[in-house]
């Protein structure tokens, strides 16, 4: 009996050790996979803008999701239209239902409303407004889909051979991709071809009515010589940043993609600028490569890296545009439609009627990480975004009505917040969360919610 018991104990110990070994191995593999996935987002490049020489490169030609860096091309085509007199800064940009329905970050213009082209530009370079991007795309391209073809065609004409655009804002689409090198080319092109509009990228804030809207680029004013350009973030892309620097005749364009947080991305960009700006050339009086007309070496580089002048978009030849897009790369499956909702449950004020594992708006996008593919409320350089939720309903109109009522009742509390709805699925029903975004910290969101509750408005703060 004692032997038998001893054998059982021995067998149990061996079994335990075997299970423990398997568990440890599995944990290691999971950790290694997660680490490799995180590392797979990383990419960076530093270009001497006077010579076109790459001073630093890491995964610069690897495909990455551009996120809101996409808006750089939307703005490029906007500047092109301005320079050719097709539109003016005062031209009204009308917001369709499609534009008005874009998820945050957004300006919050309602369907049928309009703003000027200049306001749309400012909202994109500061707030990274997705609704403004779509509205401009529809103005310039007739539709967002056609504008995306124009964007890709323009990318090809600028030498961005590894970039495909599917939308004007950068919200997740697995068929939309770029490289750090291509983004550097676009950054140089913006400054080279449209210096008369480039100062928009240095804008830290602007007034929208009585509201001051602050920008996301935290390196402006922090690093000497930084004068733009654009930030971006989705869960799939990580934290992205393109920066332009000019100090004492030396000029750089640098790209960092796939940062783990806004702060770490900004710190990496600062490190690269500090390390490589002293190594940059002053040749040609500090002009960017496409303007160095008296420098034969730089002219030779410009022929390869960037056209001397703005290259036209073949938007008058749809067949040509289609061919360019088709030859770029395999495209992803079309977005799956959001299933229709059942109009049964009533409005739930404040708390969700769903379990934590509900499906967000990004389910409409095909591709990896469907539950994570949406810009947070505070996109770009902020590592987190906090929102205040005031209602959840199977009726979008009821959710929007809750937003309107709350905004009116608590105008002072929510003066700097923007209201929006987010669909999600639960038990075969599509619900709509009514939320106010724009809170930089948990403390700010909790403080706002506490003030709302004093006015008998049920709410809770949640991280987007």
TrEMBL record:
Domain SPOR intervals: 380-464
Entry keywords, A to Z: Carboxypeptidase, Cell shape, Cell wall biogenesis/degradation, Hydrolase, Peptidoglycan synthesis, Protease, Signal
PROSITE patterns according to UniProt: SPOR
Pfam families the UniProt entry points to: Peptidase_S11, SPOR
Assigned EC number: 3.4.16.4
Primary enzyme class: hydrolase
Signal peptide location: 1-38
GO terms, molecular function: serine-type D-Ala-D-Ala carboxypeptidase activity
Family note: Belongs to the peptidase S11 family.
Protein name, as recorded: D-alanyl-D-alanine carboxypeptidase
